Amino acid sequence: MKKKKSRSVDAGFGGVGDRAALRIVSSVSAVGILLMLFILGFLVANGLPVLREASLSGILLGFDWYPTEDPPALGMLPLIAGTLSATLLSSLISLPVAFGLAVFTAEIAPKYMRNALKVMLELLGFLPSIVLGFLGMMVIAPWMQEAFGVASGLNLLNASMLLGFLVVPVVASLSEEALSAVPQELRDASYALGATRWETVIKVVVPHAMGGMLSASLLGVMRALGETMVVLMAAGGAAIIPRSLADPIRPLTSTIAAEMGETAVGSVHYHALFFAGLLLLVITLLINLISMYVEKRGQRT
Amino acid sequence: MNRTLMRKSANSFMTLIFWTCGLLLAAVLVFVIAYLFKQGWSVLSIEFLTQPPSEGMTAGGILTPLVGTVELVFVSMLIALPVGVATGLYFAEYSNDGILARLLRISIRLLAGVPSVIFGLFGLSLFVVFMNFGSCLLSAGLTLGCLSLPLIVTASEQAFLAVPQDYRDASFALGATKWQTIVKVVFPSAASTIITGAILSIGRVAGETAPIMFTGAAYFAPELAKSVFSQVMALPYHIYVLATASTDIEAVRPIQYGAILVLIAIVLGTSAVGVVIRARLASKGGR
Amino acid sequence: MAENGFETQIRTIGLNLFYGAAHVLKDITFDIGRKTVTAFIGPSGCGKSSYLRCLNRMNDFIPSAKVAGTIEIDGEDILSPSTDVIALRRRVGMVFQKPNPFPMSIYENVAYGPRLNGVKSRSALDDIVESSLRGAALWDEVKSKLGRPGTGLSGGQQQRLCIARAIATQPDVLLMDEPTSALDPMSTARVEELIRDLKVDYTVVIVTHNMQQAARISDYTAFFLLGDLVEYDRTARMFTSPSDKRTEDYISGRFG
Question: Does residue C90 belong to the interface with chain B, where contact is any CB pair within 8 Å?
């Protein structure tokens, strides 16, 4: 809930003290911009050297990821496929659930429940991902092996379900806010025309909140995309392109986390991992920018 | 008439579905928490919290990782709070929608979406390698500080904006300069909200694993950190290590679950405190 | 306006105020006398409060505001760019429509202004706090609870606290923007009584939408309509035999 400022902020200066204060505060604030630039810069600086060893198409489309061999095979396609498949599957599972929760909280739940639900959602969002990864590895995987007879419970499905747990709170909270922001007059008008609550929600409220819900979904997707510990512990870690839900995967994030510890600074492997990070960062930034654009568009109507 | 009946039953049906799903999810949550408790309950005790891990981490407690986590949080807040509050102050009191402000807003928004492992890479290349701090508490703490910056900025900006304009008007009308107004009136008014934001960030930072994995977290440290340049154990990383590299599965299991329960207690505990304080402040606000 | 005992303190010459394209004050010229109570009356949105805010340069905070003309307080042009605005605001105090005590103790509220001015000694501040609270007719009610938050007082007490806070900097002029419109009748009466006492030490300029109030407490009244200063005269004369037809219509309630 941001309040719009309507006062000029330049007036009221009383001389030297105020100018100095402004200078200090804005200089310190500029760190934010510098940080973003530095992150990009360092990733580029440490990632681009890998292009000396392999071509761009070789990296992005190559099937074999054996960076420790000599000569190293730097095909990131399986890693990219791992990231995409986990993100896609977890979004497919979690977005409907999140929207459902949001609709329930905002429109259906009685007032006393609403606050409790919102608080629970928010607290759920604070759950550290390591806990989910641990559960995936220690609890869900053995259960999957027993129940479904798969070779290993550490796979795409396991990881995606857990990623869903991380995505749902974010998307649900933001969507709930978007739904609550729909003016009551619209609902009243719909009821006055004899619509049921479900019809009102589906035909009037949700379309109005669509922009906010879309932007929330993008943020959820970003969350799944960038998650490390869950996939590190529950996804299996095999750098292959998944053909079934029970196949293990190795997304970009867990690759970096798993392999960086044993990599010599400045080696080809080192640069390759930074390049993987750069890929991930660029994708994330793009989605973020799109989500900002969608939000702006929604605000204008 | 038939159509109305269909519509009404569709409505009831959907309501039923929603309620069932909601209750199911709640049940799952309760089940998970109960399971965690059952597995780790046996280990929880004062000794658990005050003894370091022993015998190759198959016995003993979690003192070292616990202290390490506290130290990491402390260092991260040391950098994130001043910069974050200053930035929030800039947005709320000084910015005039010029180019600096807009770039800054976009940067903070982008930073909020950067994956945590990327912060790890950044910390590695900047603090560990480029600035030659090596893998240590300082590098890991600074990395975590960068990670929590967007959270603090958002919380601070909202806190400052929430201070009623009336206060500023009265202060100016008494002849105060802008900076005097900020220091004497705006900041004290916003302080509690900012602290709440800091508490919530602490909860988030305490549970982070990826950014510290190669910037300062130690697989095992025989003693507590001697300086900011030593490596530290950290609770979330300790859990990871116990899960993936332990030798005696049976002995380690209760320790794992105990550590998880402690971590959840810390993270959810601080977050819950933050949420409660925020709710109290919100209801107290307004004259 | 040369009359017995009238000494000009605030001289306004050809004042024009624009908010963006809106011409809010049109060519205002008149004098306000030292140690008088001058009331501004007129329908809402006619520039009364805007003029008040010119007197302490609070319009500087509105980005679209543009001022032309001259206002002299004690011979000094306060609209000139070289004016020390901070010092001006210590000489010209303001009380707002909605009481806005700081979320601090009563003592700290009143001591705020003097502290800015550099008063540090505890005993000096004690004296100033006491005399200001006495001057605002609030001392007896709060002298035993100076440490309590200012926001804990009743509405009428809060407004008197704001008055005490404003006079603590020992201003020459006290501006009051509809100070009683948010108060109940009892508190209103007390504040009005206070204003009559205040004029012994301060020049009071008060904006009010309540004509009876203007008639009760002011020595001079200025009637603003749509940005024009229609009439300015001794209160007694204006209310019994106004010169301008518009004034007469407004006072007799035909509009506004």
Answer: yes
